[in-house]
Hints:
The chain has helices spanning 19-32, 55-65, 77-80, 84-97, 120-152, 177-190, 195-202, 206-214, 216-220; strands at residues 4-11, 40-46, 69-74, 101-104, 109-111, 165-167, 173-175. It has 230 residues and is α/β, with parallel strands linked by helices. The chain folds into 2 domains: 4-133, Rossmann fold; 153-220, no CATH class. Helix 7 (195-202) crosses helix 8 (206-214). The radius of gyration is 20 Å and the shape is elongated.
Amino acid sequence: MSGQTALYCRVSTGDQSLARQRQRTSEYATDALGIEPAAIEVYSDKQTGTDTDRDGYRELIEAVESGEIERVIASEVSRISRSVRDFAATVERVVDENEVGLHILDMGISLSGDPDERDPYTRAFLTVAATFAELEAEIKRDNTREGIAASRSQGKWHGRPPFGFDVGPEGYLVPNDDYETAVVILDELDKGASKRELGRRTGAGRSAVRHVANNRDRYVGDPANPTESV
């Protein structure tokens, strides 16, 4: 079968950039698989991924079912869906029903669209990975709820919001996707990681890492007694 290679990219907020995922999946397609750029189609979404009710995802599935797509590439299991049920449904529709290959880059594995080349162990491993992605999403939601409680205890915010927060319509700080990065930064600092290395590794920058370190209670402290140090 000969057809397009589909790259599927998703971010969960409008403030995030899809560029990194596009670059990673595109380089894999051209460098590892030898796909010509003209044979690559990008499908993307900027919204939550706990279900499959997404415009870019629906367009991808329509293209798969019409026979236009030979393989689908995504950077992570969680980019396709953070629900094990929806991820399993995607694998069934893409791989089983339409014989389209599926490549997941962070796991370094792929499912062949050819029934004679499918590895059941790889399929089982992807299901386990989807289970952990769903667990991580739930942990992230718990952390975000804690962040909302902590930010509201500080009252309404004026000026530029601190790292990991946006200012909501009511004037209170609302955790964004960088809030989870802040929690990771604090955890890594506790393990002895350097601020310079964390700034580079997380993409947050050294100043953001310093801010997080100096305002620990804003991210993981007692919401009733937040520390303010902007």
